[in-house]
Structure formats: C-alpha cells, structure tokens
Amino acid sequence: MVEKEQWTSKLGFILATAGSAIGLGAIWKFPNTVATSGGGAFFLMFIAFTLLIGFPLLMGEFFIGRSTGREALTAYKKLAPRTKWHWIGYLGMGTCFLLLSYYSVIGGWIVIYFVKSITGGLLYNAVPYEQMFQSTVADWKMVLLAQLSFMLITIVVVGQGVKKGIERSSRILMPGLFILFIVLIIRSLTLPGMEEGIRYFLTPNFAQIDAKTILNALGQSFFCLSVGVSVMVTYSSYLSKKESLTRSAVSVVGLNVLTSFMAGLAIFPALFALGMTPSEGPGLLFITLPAVFEQMYGGGIFIALFLALFLFATFTSAFSMLEILVAAYSKPEHPARSRKRLSWLFGGIIFVVGIPSALSFGPWADVQWFGKSIFDLADFTVSNVLMPIGVLLIAVFVGYRFPKDKLLAELESEPAWWRKGLAVYMLLIRYIIPFVVLLVFLNALGLLPV
Predict the structure, then answer these.
(1) Cβ(41)–Cβ(206) below 8 Å
(2) What is the greatest pairwise CA distance in the chain?
C-alpha cells in the first residue's frame, strides 16, 4: 500500500493554506472592498465576522479533510456513503476550475506588468495609466502568452506534489511576500500626508455603516479564507493526526487578517498622501497604484516589489485551485506519475477554458451575456453564486451530517475548551452561519432591498 503524502510540518501546512486565500482575498479583493465600504468601520466588522463566521467554517472543512485523510470528493463519500453529499466536492472542484480559468488571466496581467516594471516600461512615460491598462488587456496575443506562462508555472509546481511542489514553493513565496510588504509599508508610512490614509483605514466611522457595508464585511469574512470550495478539505487531508487543527486554523486566520491589515497600510496611506482616491476593481492595482508609485522617490523599484508581492500571492492561490482537481483523480498506486499527468491535463483544459475570458477585453469585448462580459460573468458566477452555495452546503453538512463520533475523535487532540464550547460551535454552524450566508447570497444577487 502506498503511503499517503503529507505536509512535512505544521508550518508548511499553515503557509500553504494561508497562501491559498491571500491572493484572492487579502490583496486583490480586500482593498477594493474597503475602498467602497466605509474604510475603518468595514475593517472592524471584517475582523469580527472573520472570527465568528470564517473561523468556524474553516474548522468545519478541516474536520472533514483530516478525519478522512481524503481529498474533497472522496471525503464526503466516506463520511456520508450512499448519499448525494459528495456533490459538494464536485461543486468545489467546478468552482475552482472556473475560478482558475479567469484568475489565470489576472495572473497573466500581473506577469505583463511585472515584466514592464523591471524593464522600465511601466512608469515615467507619456501614456496615461488607464490607457495603458486598456491597451494591455486588449492585446490578446500578449495576454494569452502571459496567461499561458502563469498556468505553466502553476502546473509544474502542482505536478511536483505536496512536499516538493506546493509546500516548498509556499515556504519561499510566503515569507518573501511578508518581507516585501514590510518594505512597502515603511515606504508608505514615510510619505508626507500619509496620516489621512491611516485614519481612513483604521478609524471606524459608525455613521458610515449600513446594511450593504455589513453584508460586504460578511462576504469578505469567508472569501478571505478561501472556504466554501473544499480546498481546505483537500489541504487538511495531508495534515498529520498529531497536529492541532485549532492552532493551525488560528494561525491561518491570523495570517490572513495580518495580510489584510498590511495591504491596507501599504496602499491607503500612499494613496491619500499623493492626493489619490481609492478605486475599485482592477483600477486600483493597474491604474491608481502605478500613478502613486510614479510620484515616489525610487518608485520604479517599489512598483516592481509590489507586483512581485502580488504575483507571489496569486501563485499560491492558483496552486490550491489546481490541487483540488489533481488530488481528486490521482491514483494512489502511481501517485507521482498520475499527479504530473493530471496537472498537465487539467491545467491545459483550464487554460483553454480561460481563453474567452482573456479575449473579453479585446476581440470579444462586445460579447455580452446577461449584460456582462465573459470575464465578468465568470467572476460573478463564482463569487456571488457558487462560493456562497458551497459555504452554505458545507455548514449544513458539518452541522447535521458529519458523524458525531468522528467530530469528537478530532477534538481529542484539541484544547480542552473545545469540548466545553462545542454547543456554541454547533449553534453557529447549524443556525447562524447558514442564515448569514443566505443573506450574503441574496444580497449578491440583488434580491435584498439594501
């Protein structure tokens, strides 16, 4: 019998798991959401909801994965045999497949901008940054080449396996990410007039809080931890029974909150110091921030550092999305050989499926479905439909279908307070979280009058 591959250490698991969410939530989505949801008031609610909503959901996925020692698809079959619950695994795999298809397009944009930053073609030129971004994403040949290079790196890393590929890469990329963040934060906080940005980001103005702000904070709380797509089920299945799930989950939550905090400190003081206003979507990263760095001393160096940081985070997220697909179909008797073959198979198909998203800013810009471009429709489907449904189903599964004896067995290696607080956890996971997720889902679809 072939021994199942595992993380070599708890640190490797924590770095890989945190990295899975950071690119999606903390750097790309978090600053955009803060910019449109009231600054400090949103940040305070985000922390509260991450602890009350995100943490219990993360623990739920950890329970499922570690108790079975199996990836997302098999884990549900093992816990609830002869039922349809394993479709949660299929839903997570489909969500990651679609997500990576357009996420790799964004990764390709970052590759292009990073290359421009190190070759001197990004800052200090006569082309307005908005025009530069529009012409860059419209150049479909360059975009497809960059998307392909992004996917090739992702395929190679995942094909190397959990230890040699994902964990080894995360051990390099994640510390590198935090070092670059510290450098950028120091530069941001030394700019004249940066105080207004800090006040905007960290001073809660409760008069700004409305129903939409609350719902945005709720949505961000589970988005930032990459829960709802069963990636954490797959990652936790590689964790040794000797390790504490609680300590691991606390570390992952802490790293994600810290990264969100650092992203805010790196971006908002610089924006306000240089007279910029926060924007949403790709405009913040590709239009506003280059204009900010251009006005800094040594701006060319700092924009290259920031893009390297964002590229690191984007890759760690991409690894997890491809891993959930590869792990589900790897053959235990030939794990290394089948893993490489499946990495190339799924990675290649994802690249092909992502081509329409890449072209939706160029030759297919006029193609619209339901009033959205192909790229925007894919993003809306993942963020506002598939992920909330996944979170809801996982919460219901953990709350009502997860075998109690297996749950208690998992809690044996956890702190003593878990057994005392289990009733509170079940209250959250059975009633409060499903209700909250349903509200977020209805709000995302525009069905709530807020």
Answers:
(1) yes
(2) 66
Q: Which helix (H) or strand (E) holds 387?
A: helix 387-396
Residue 431: which of 388, 399, 393 has the closest Cα? 399
Going by pLDDT thresholds of 50, 70 and 90, the confidence category of residue 270 is confident
**For 175-195, what is the mean pLDDT?**
84
Q: What is the pLDDT of residue 259?
A: 85
**Among the listed residues 336, 284, 331, 271, the one whose alpha carbon sits nearest the alpha carbon of residue 310:** 284
C-beta of residue 278 within 8 angstroms of C-beta of residue 284: yes
What's the predicted TM-score (pTM) here?
0.88
- Rounded Cα distance, 322 and 339, in Å: 11
Q: Which residues contact 340 (CB under 8 A, 6 or more apart)?
A: 159
Neighbours of 257 (CB within 10 A): 20
DSSP helix/strand/coil, 372? strand
CB neighbour list of residue 108: distance below 8 Å, 6 or more residues apart: 143, 144, 145, 146, 147, 148, 149, 150, 358
Q: What is the overall mean pLDDT for the chain?
A: 85
DSSP string for 14-34:
HHHHHHHHIIIIIIIIHHHHH
Q: What average pLDDT does the segment 81-94 reach?
A: 94
Q: Which residues pair with 237 in a beta bridge?
A: none
- Flag whether pLDDT at 317 surpasses 90: no
Helix residue ranges, H only, 120-244: 129-138, 140-159, 168-189, 195-202, 211-223, 231-236
Evaluate whether 313 touches 174 at the Cβ level (below 8 Å). no
Burial category of 76 from C-beta neighbours within 10 Å (exposed 0-12, middle 13-18, buried 19 and up): buried
How many other C-beta atoms lie within 10 A of the C-beta of residue 258? 15
Q: How far is CA 285 from CA 45, 341, 346, in A?
A: 24, 35, 29
Q: Please state, in angstroms and rounded to a whole number, the distance separating the CA atoms of residues 366 and 256.
A: 37
| Residue in 318, 324, 371 with CA at minimum distance from that of residue 151 | 318
What is residue 166's DSSP assignment? I
Q: Tokens 């690119």 correspond to what residue?
A: 23
Contact 41, 208 (CB under 8 A): yes
Report how far residue 416's alpha carbon sits from residue 424's, in angstroms, rounded to the nearest whole number: 14
- Say whether pLDDT at 52 is over 80: yes
